[in-house]
Amino acid sequence: MATFILHNLPYLLSILLLIPSHFSLYVVSDSIEEANALLRWAASLHNIKQSNISSWPLLTQNTTNSNSITSPCTWVGLSCNNGGSVVRLNLTNAGLNGTLHELSFSSFSDLAYIDLSLNDLSGTIPLGLTQLSKLIYLDLSSNLLSGNIPPEISLLTNLDTLHLAANQFSGSIPPEIGQLSFLTELALYTNNLDGPIPASVGNLTKMARLFLYENQLSGFIPPEMGNLTNLVEVYMDTNSLAGPIPSTFGNLKNLTVLLMFNNKLSGPIPQEIGNLKSLNRLSLYGNNLSGQIPATLGGLTNLTLLHLYGNQLSGSIPEELGNLKSINDLELSENQLTGSIPLSFGNLSNLVYLYLRDNKLSGQIPEQITSLPNLSVLQLDNNQLNGSLPQNICQNNKLQNFTVNTNLLQGPIPKSFKDCKSFMRVRLEENQFTGNISEDFGVYPQLQFINLNKNKFYGEISSNWANCPQLATLWIADNNITGSIPPEIGNATRLQALDLSSNQLSGKIPKELRKLTSLVELNLTNNQFFDVIPSEIGLLTDLESLDLSSNRLSAIPENIGNLAKLIVLNLSNNEFSQEIPIQLAKLFHLSVLDLSRNSLKGEIPSQLSSLESLEILNLSHNNLSGSIPNSFNDMHGLVTIDISYNELEGPIPDNKAFQNASIEAFQGNNGLCGDIKGLPLCESLSPHNRTSKKSHRKLLFLTIFLPVCAFFSLLSFLGVYFFVRQRKEKLDPETEQNDVQEEDSISISSCDGKIMHDEILKSTGGFDDVYCIGKGGYGTVYKANLPSGSTVAVKKLHPLGNGERPYQKEFLNEIRALTEIRHRNIVRLHGFCSYASHSFLVYEYLEGGSLDAVLGNDKEAKELDWSKRVNIVKGVAQALSYMHHDCSPPIVHRDIKSKNILLDSEYEAHISDFGTAKLLNLDSSHWTALAGTYGYVAPEFAYTMK
Questions:
Q1: Number of domains into which the chain is organized
Q2: 586 annotated as ligand-binding
Q3: How far is 915 from 674, CA to CA, in rounded Å?
Q4: Residue 22: pLDDT above 50?
Q5: Is residue 850 part of a domain?
Q6: Residue 614, H or E segment
Q7: Active-site residue numbers?
Q8: Which of 123, 115, 118 has the alpha carbon at shortest distance from 99?
Q9: pTM for the whole structure
């Protein structure tokens, strides 16, 4: 045998030398094929020079030559095995723009890892991708991919991780996905997937993390999901899932996160949920769950967050919840819970946020709660709690948000309340608290909002409020406060809302109010203030609402016309005896003007007709004389008028508000006439005059107008004839018929609707893209420079293509929301137009553009320094606070994000786009929560969704 080997050794050596040469040829061949496949795909992409793969070699005619190609193993984003074959493709956030259809996946026999997330890839998933039999990891999330998830995805039998989230996939989840038996992580969130969750998901027994949130999934949750005992995290929130929570979920002993909020789930919370001892976060809010809160939840000692609000849960709160010693966020609001607050809550030493608002809880507030060492937010409002406030409130000096409004609480304010330096937001309104207001409240360095309305406080307003440097809202209406407004209040320079109405305040309105330059709302109605309105009020140029009614004021300053942002002005029931100041005509944004029950004299200024935004006008119970100006015929925005009990005469304006008004709006004026029931006909409208004038007009028509009209008709005919002949040589006949008929009603507030409609069409070139400044989910925004010199933003709703008015629900939502609210940080709606063919909304134009656009521009983002950014955040927070807490009913925007935050030239933030907004019913036990997309949400809203 040895002799044979030695004899044939040369031949054996030559064979061994040949093997690596043949092997290297195969490797080079595979490498060339993979390189060419990658380069062909790269060549099909857009803007490749701006992407991370710009360093790849260019695809040329010579790349098929093995001598001219480099191994892709050294290229950016690629990794190879020892044999030189590509096994890993990682181009996350690489600036790729194009599709996957030009990538020949069959060229990559060893590819095991693909990450193309955070790019701009579009199109569908190519079926060729499902041929990668060795693929373990696939991440295509955060792209623009669309279409269905192909059932052939099941061919990737070795797949461990599948991420298709944050795309535009539609259709249902294919049942074949249940064949991916090695899958440990499935992320399909933020798509347009619908239909039920397939029961075959129950076969994925190795699954650890499941992300299905923010889709349109419907139907019942399959009980088979209880088989997934390795599950650690489940996110199924913000869908349309219905039916009960399967009791089989009690088998998921390793579960740490279970989020199923914002669905349509019903029935009781299963007792078996109490078996999930590892659970850290449980959120079921915004469903239709009913029955009692299971006492077994008290055994979830690792729980840090429990959100059950916005359901129909009833019965008492179980004492066992006091065993949740790890809990820091407990939210049970907006249910039908009864009974008292459990004393065991005093054991929750880690509790930071406690929300029990909008229930039917009764009894007293336990001392044990207010002494919790870490409590920051305590909201107990809108219940039936009674008794007095605990004496040790804010003992930890960490309590920031304390709301107990709309209960049956009474008695004095505890002394500890005065010393709480951590307060930021306090609401005590609509109770029966008593005590001296000048002694019970102290100096609060962080306080931003306090509402003490509708209680029984007495005493005088303390100058301490001026020492609260962050105070933006001070409401002390409907109490028994006496004395005058201290001049020091002018030092509270951050004040935006001051309401001292319905008290017994007297004296002069202090001139020091001029220093409150941020003031948006000032309400001093129903007090005993006297003397003139100080001219310094005219310096508060940010004022949007001014109510000084029901006092003893004697003169209106002329510079009140400087309040250019004023929307509501109520000076009724005072002692004014002057003429109506013509300077009021400068208040172009005014929507409500009430000067009733004074002794105003003279004629109604014709200049008031320039108030194009005016909707409510009340001049009743004065000594006004003369006729109503003819220019009032053009006040098309007017909705309600009252001119009763004056000395007016002459005809009623030919205006919808006047013509639709009841006789009560005109009575007490002996000289008024018009075609209104209860008023005498004007002389020009009497039967005799009607007949004579009709005959006169007929004679005039026959003798003068008819010949003239005939002459001009002939000229017009000849002109049109020659014009059409010339046009026929230049235009296609179809082009001549390209006229748009618009016969629907125009509804533009505060102006002549038809004129404004035509001006907007002309100013935007018929909504030409040249004038486009932004696009949103249901509309495109255009910049319009009107002939008047003003600039507005016009949002034209996208057409639906089915004959329906475009996005009518969102259109009406935006109108309702923006006509309900007035705030310096909320964009103003000037008007709207609704046609069958198109609808649009007209807003104030904000030259700074959207925050999203600013942050997306490197140059502008650098100019946005920290002080400007903080100012933007404050503006958004103040607007949200106003909508959530100061509007009645509260308004939830439901789609706050950088694209919906507009900036003016001073970088002041304005919230826009109220198409998904919701006006909440305070009496409802189930409020609608977020809609649209998840953008920035104010912290309090994120916790309470209110």
A1: 2
A2: no
A3: 42
A4: no
A5: yes
A6: none
A7: 895
A8: 123
A9: 0.71
